[in-house]
Amino acid sequence: ISILDSALADEGEDWVALSIRGWMNVGAGRLAQALADFERATKLSPLEPDAVAPYAWGLLCSGSAREAVSLAETTLKKRPDRPGLLLILATAALLIGDTQRALSATDEAIALTQRQPFALAAAAWICASVDKRREAVELVAEAEASPDQKSPLCLIAPAYLALGDRTHALLLCEQSASERESDLFFAGVDPRLVALRRQIEGMLRPLRD
């Protein structure tokens, strides 16, 4: 982070460097600093989805889901081909009670990714959260069985937690920590995993040392 601090001080602000530093701040457990970096990156490049998505995600994780929805919707009107941003929108929409938009955004993301496991796992959480249990179970099974691309284990954990299987969700996070999956750092602030936040933080502590 100190290297990026020096580069930004010497060369001036750059949205890519700010976004990278933001993700590093997330990994270090500093969400407020990360959110500030993501916001600055978005202001520098408001039409770039790769700048906007981290800020929308940061807003979601900091409890500003409604703002995340607004930001994601505005960007997707110009660039509707961004599945990651669609999944952020879906999660934020569900958190503010807009079930229909959550489901439609998830469907769009699945289609755009051609059913990649990370999109299926996100869809499973959405379905489980709105009492579509059968669909959620099927999506989790498909995500876990995908022969082409493995989803990070901690990205599947929210679906199991929403299905009521806290034990398996925790096991997936523990396995994620043992495999040193980078996505686990983001799981530490994921509102879908708030029930496991204390345990995840304990898993992250030795990884940060």
Mean pLDDT: 92
Order of helices and strands: HHHHHHHHHHHHH
Would you identify the regions where 5 or more consecutive residues have pLDDT less than 50?
Answer: none
The secondary structure category is mainly alpha
Into which percent range does the helicity of residues fall?
over 70%
Enumerate how many helices there are, as a single number.
13
Total count of strands: 0
Explain what this protein looks like in three dimensions.
- The protein has 209 residues and is mainly alpha-helical.
- 76% of the residues lie in helices and 0% in strands.
- Helix 5 packs antiparallel against helix 6 and helix 8 (117-129) runs antiparallel to helix 9 (133-145).
- The longest helix has 15 residues, at 99-113.
- The protein is globular.
- The two termini are 15 Å apart.
Q: Short description, anyone?
A:
This protein has 209 residues and is mainly alpha-helical.
List the helices and strands and how they pair.
Layout: H1 2-11, H2 15-27, H3 31-44, H4 49-61, H5 65-78, H6 83-95, H7 99-113, H8 117-129, H9 133-145, H10 153-162, H11 166-178, H12 183-187, H13 197-208
Helix pairs in contact: 1-2, 2-3, 3-4, 4-5, 4-6, 5-6, 6-7, 6-8, 7-8, 8-9, 8-10, 10-11, 11-13
Q: What keyword list fits this structure?
A:
209 residues; mainly alpha; 13 helices; 76% helix; globular
